[in-house]
Amino acid sequence: MEIVAAREPDVTSAADCLAAAFADDPQMAFFFSGDPAQRQDLVTEFFSILMAARLALGMPVLLLKSDGRILGAVMGYNTQRPEWLPAHRERWALLQQRQASMASRFERADAISETYKPQEPHFYLGVLGVHPSMQGKGAGVALIKAYCDLAERDPVSAGTFLETAQRKNLAFYERCGFQLLGQGELAPRKPFWCLFRPKPVRDGN
C-alpha cells in the first residue's frame, strides 16, 4: 500500500470509496436525509464535487492505494481558503436543488465550526475515509499522519483542525494527537465535535 497525491482521474473511484466509508455516518445522514438509496447517490456526488474542487485549487488530497485500487482518502484545505471555480460552484448548486434542506444544514455545521476553529492559520481536514474492508487495520492512522505531516511542514500553519459527528471517532483522533476544542449540536441529540492537532514545538523554532 502507498499514500499518494490524488489526480483528477482518481475522482470517481475515490468518491465511491468515500461513499462506502461514510455509509452509516450520522453527519452524512444529517446533511442528506430521505431514502437511503438516494442518500448514497447524493453522498457520492458530494465527495466527487469536494475532491474535484480541491484538486482544481491545488489543495491537499491524498489517497491510500493498493495495486491501483483506492482504499482511502483524506482531503481539505491548507492555510488558504480560495474561492471555488465556477464549474464546481454550479455542481454544488445542482446538488442543493436535489436536497432541499442541505444549505441550512451545512450552515448549522459551519456555525459550530466557526465557534471553535483556531484563529491562527491552519490546515483543515474536511474528509477522512477508509473503505470498510480496510477499517481497523491502520489505514486511517496512516492517512491522517500523512495529512498532518503536510501541515507540520508548512511554515505558516499552526496545526490541523477537523470536526466529527461520530462519538467513537473521538478516541481515535485523540490517539492521533488531536485535542477537543468544543462541541455543538447539528440537531437535538446529534452532537458535533471540533478538534485540533497543534504543530509540535521543536527546539530551535
Automatic annotation (TrEMBL):
- Could you tell me which CDD domains the record lists for this protein? NAT_SF
**Listed GO molecular functions?**
acyltransferase activity, transferring groups other than amino-acyl groups
Keyword terms: Transferase
Q: Where is the N-acetyltransferase domain?
A: 1-200
Q: Which domain of life is it from?
A: Bacteria
PROSITE patterns reported in the protein's UniProt record:
GNAT
What name has this protein been given in UniProt? GNAT family N-acetyltransferase
